[in-house]
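Predict the 3D structure for this chain.
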Amino acid sequence: MSQLLTIAAETENPLLPPIPELVIGLIAFVIVFGFLAKKLLPNINKVLEQRREAIEGGIEKAEAAQIEAQSVLEQYKAQLAEARHEAARLRQEAQEQGAALIAEMRAEGQRQREEIVAAGHAQIEADRKVAAAALRQDVGRLATELAGKLVGESLEDYARQSRVIDRFLGELEEKAEATR
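Done. Predicted structure below.
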């Protein structure tokens, strides 16, 4: 067995590199690592920091936008409530004005109706007077003719005719008042 160990020590292990190559590789690794740490790592950290700031800034902007949107929504709701209140007030005013206008138009219609009725009564009274005068003339003429036929003489005299007519109509009015 000892023989085996000596043989193994004399022969090189293919898995273990020679020491000088291992030292040169380690020095090269430290140089490359130092170069990357000096030049590349700050750039990588700077880019990562910018991304982190952009993400945090985006989140902050989103939160600010959300707060602003919430305040705008509250303002909108307040304006909407105010507009609804104003619309209700305007509707109430319109209803009141409509009721006042209707009352005014009714009063105006009542006044016009009363004027028309008064004018109708005045017209009827005037027509009655005209009819009474025409009737008085017709009755007077007929009464004069009848009286002339009864008496046998002409009663063409206007003064006499007026007296006879007035007396006859007076008697008729007295009888009419007595029956009332």
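The first helix runs from residue 2 to 10.
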